[in-house]
């Protein structure tokens, strides 16, 4: 008799030891921070901030937000020519008790898409949190890049009535340029997530 094996049951991502992923919260030095730039890094320096919220609009206080992005010229840190020494292109931030995250970076430039056409400036996001069966992947676009957003091949695959969930809003606070982007895990305002 041949026994057929079925799919194994799912489990949440992890377990993770928080002090290994976000050691700064525990007084240790981490391998990744929420700062991608140095003061001398070329480009428009920005702050990306927001909150991770559950389906009821409550903060998710133990999420881990990771971002990857190109520099202001549209080049990734692992470019064949070595990229920029003063730009990391990757950062990680754990959410606080109010579900908040914050990154210091530069506004990315456009990069070539799968078909060679330029994609709108964007930041790739990976989210991990207790209770998720898989990592969640999304993108952040910028509200002051309307023309580039309208031509972006990936953003155009998202239904028009859902695209707003991928757009960060520019705010000015003193001399700082802030882009606000909240991540909603469920509900009417649910952020669009992509399969990888």
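^ Assign residues to that structure.
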């Amino acid at each position: 008799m041949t026994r057929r094996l079925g799919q194994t049951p799912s489990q949440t991502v992890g377990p993770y030891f928080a002090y290994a992923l976000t050691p700064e919260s525990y007084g240790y030095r981490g391998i990744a921070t929420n700062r991608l730039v140095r003061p001398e890094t070329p480009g428009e320096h920005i702050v990306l901030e927001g909150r991770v919220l559950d389906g009821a609009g409550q903060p998710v206080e133990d999420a881990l937000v990771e971002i990857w992005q190109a520099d202001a010229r549209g080049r990734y840190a692992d470019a064949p020519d070595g990229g920029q020494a003063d730009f990391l292109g990757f950062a990680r931030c754990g959410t606080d008790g109010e579900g908040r995250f914050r990154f210091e970076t530069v506004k990315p430039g456009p990069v070539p898409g799968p078909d060679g056409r330029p994609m709108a400036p964007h930041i790739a996001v990976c989210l991990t949190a207790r209770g998720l069966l898989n990592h969640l992947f999304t993108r952040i676009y910028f509200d002051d890049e309307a023309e580039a957003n309208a031509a972006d091949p990936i953003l155009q695959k998202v239904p028009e009535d859902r695209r707003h969930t991928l757009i960060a809003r520019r705010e000015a606070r003193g001399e700082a340029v802030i882009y606000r982007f909240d991540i909603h895990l469920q509900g009417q305002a649910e952020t669009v997530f992509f399969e990888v």
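The domain at 41-184 is CATH 2.60.130.10 (Protocatechuate 3,4-Dioxygenase, subunit A).
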